[in-house]
Design the sequence.
């Protein structure tokens, strides 16, 4: 498993980044609202979503599967996409559906809303649809979601994840609690990478090089503050 995935936090308590956002998300999780996470690639948006899902549903969301779905378009064309899901959530990338994203997203939301699973442990009566790369959603798909978001609010919450807030229509934004996810600063970058290197100490060939702030800062600059990219670069450097 890649370092970036192996050391990704699954709970807020173990997440160094965005501690000021954690309590806000825990509170919002109790409210009846959709969420819109926006920030640069590698800023921690997806990790926040994973931690929030764990906060809401418990460890059950870690038992995921990859499913293949087929959808019929109005023109009778078959569109096939893959999703990652648990009993309580589903993750979809609308770009896989191309110009037919409206049909795919609408059907997935309806399906999740109607097949909600009661989590006895925390009495949640809704499922979550996570839409990654939401900036790729067509205007038609976003326009159609307005009524869907309101209609199924009681049984299905939508978590949008995007790197461009300007690509999300005002109608969708107005129906969401918006969470800005900033890129990590220098101190956070150093703290996270130093911790990962400490955990991987036995597997690192040149530990002195990795424990040098100059090396970490070079990763930060070359990755353009993209934390995931920096971790992948560090792992690649360890193999050369």
Sequence:
């Amino acid at each position: 498993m890649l370092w970036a995935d192996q050391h990704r936090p699954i709970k807020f308590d173990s997440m160094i980044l965005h501690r000021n956002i954690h309590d806000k998300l825990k509170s919002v999780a109790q409210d009846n609202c959709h969420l819109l996470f926006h920030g640069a690639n590698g800023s921690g948006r997806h990790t926040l979503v994973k931690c929030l899902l764990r906060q809401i549903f418990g460890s059950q969301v870690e038992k995921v599967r990859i499913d293949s779905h087929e959808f019929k378009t109005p023109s009778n064309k078959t569109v096939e996409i893959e999703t990652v899901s648990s009993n309580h959530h589903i993750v979809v990338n609308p770009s896989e559906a191309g110009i037919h994203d409206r049909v795919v997203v609408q059907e997935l939301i309806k399906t999740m809303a109607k097949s909600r699973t009661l989590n006895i442990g925390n009495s949640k009566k809704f499922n979550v649809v996570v839409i990654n790369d939401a900036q790729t959603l067509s205007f038609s798909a976003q326009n159609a979601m307005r009524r869907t978001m309101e209609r199924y609010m009681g049984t299905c919450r939508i978590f949008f994840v995007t790197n461009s807030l300007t690509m999300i229509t005002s109608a969708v934004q107005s129906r969401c609690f918006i969470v800005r996810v900033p890129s990590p600063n220098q101190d956070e970058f150093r703290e996270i990478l130093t911790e990962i290197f400490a955990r991987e100490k036995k597997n690192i060939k040149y530990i002195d090089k990795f424990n040098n702030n100059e090396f970490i800062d070079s990763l930060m600059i070359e990755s353009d503050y993209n934390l995931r990219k920096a971790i992948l670069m560090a792992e690649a450097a360890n193999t050369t």
In short: The first strand starts at residue 34 and ends at 38. The chain has ten helices and seven strands. Confidence is low (pLDDT under 50) at residues 118-122.
